[in-house]
Each structure stands twice: as C-alpha cells, then as structure tokens.
Write a structure and sequence with these properties.
The structure is a single chain. This protein has one domain: Bifunctional nuclease domain (Roll), CATH 3.10.690. It has a 7-stranded mixed β-sheet with strand order 3-2-1-7-4-5-6. Helix 1 packs parallel to helix 3 and helix 2 crosses helix 3. By secondary structure, it is α+β, with helices and mostly antiparallel strands. Strand 2 and strand 3 form a beta hairpin. The chain contains 4 helices and 7 strands, in the order E-E-E-H-H-E-E-E-H-E-H.
C-alpha cells in the first residue's frame, strides 16, 4: 500500500464523466478513478470549504462515525475488477477495527471530511507519460496545462454554480491507464 493524495478533479472530455486523480505522496505515480457527478460535487464542496444548510450524505457518514465514537484511520483503494474500483474504510472503534466496503468516490469524500489518509494498492498506481524523469515539479501536471486554482466561495454555491465550475475542469488526456 502506498499513501496517495487527491491531486486533481476534472471532467474527462473523452467519456464526459468526472475523474479524480490520486498521486502517490512522495512520488509521481497516479491512479485515475472515474466517479459520478454527485460524488464530484461533494468532493469539490469539501475542498472549497462550502457548508450546506443540511448535511449531505458524506457529511452524514462523518457524523455517524464520530457520534458512534469511531475514528476513520484510513481509506484503502484495494482493487479494480471489470472497470469497477473497490475501497475500504478502516474505522477504529472501542470494539476494535471495523473495515467497511465502500466505493472509492464515497471513501474519498468521507476521508476529506475526516482528514484521514488515503492509500492505494501499489499495482494500481501507474506512471503517466511525460511524468517520469521530470525534474521540475510545480505540482501535479500530468502532462496537462496547469489547472486554474479552485475558487474560494464566499458563501454557498448554487447547484448551477457548482455544475458550471465542474464543467470548466476539462483535462484532455489522463495518460494510458489499464487496470
């Protein structure tokens, strides 16, 4: 297992679906995971510190873990089978460690809310063309133009504003990835 961080979230123009790019913490290997719009929105809201009037599903998961006395120790992205990604939430409780099967997109949204580390199986990580041997590292570029910084909202984003923001994130090429 290798610790990874959420490096980028964008819209894959080839598939018109959202993709989150995880990058190994002290390296250049990547793991792209295609996710749904609700999970992408939830991740963006958390990254931008936007608070909703009522809790979203991932906020509810955080509240349940904390209210039951648990601590999210880590998230593990464990495998890909037939283009389906698998993950686990590792929750410490007074009764011991509880491992919960979950989708990676949900796991990432919850990990961001609880500041939990994220890990991926080594064999899922790949080096994207143009990344290996790059000496200059101004952050995750993945051979793409540098992304514009995430806007810092001054209040709650409307669904239309969030959708417009997500739609302008258009990485053209995420490299070749074969799970």
């Amino acid at each position: 297992m290798t610790e990874v961080t959420l490096a980028r979230l964008g819209l894959d123009s080839a598939t018109n679906s959202y993709v989150v790019i995880l990058r190994e913490l002290d390296g250049k290997r990547l793991l792209p995971i295609w996710i749904g719009q609700p999970e992408a929105e939830s991740i963006v809201l958390q990254i931008n510190g936007v608070k909703r009037e009522r809790p979203l599903t991932h906020d509810l998961c955080k509240a349940l873990i904390v209210a039951l006395g648990g601590t999210l120790q880590r998230v593990e992205i464990t495998k890909v089978l037939k283009s389906t990604y698998y993950a686990e939430l590792h929750i410490a409780t007074s009764a011991g460690l509880v491992v919960v099967d979950a989708r990676p997109s949900d796991s990432l949204a919850i990990a961001l809310r609880l500041d939990a580390p994220i890990f991926a199986m080594d064999d899922l990580l790949t080096v994207v063309e143009g990344e290996e041997g790059d000496e200059e590292d101004d952050g995750p570029s993945f051979g793409l133009p540098a992304p514009e910084p995430l806007p810092t909202p001054r209040g709650e984003m409307t669904p239309e504003q969030l959708k417009a923001y997500l739609e302008q994130l258009r990485p053209e090429d995420f490299g070749k990835f074969t799970p």
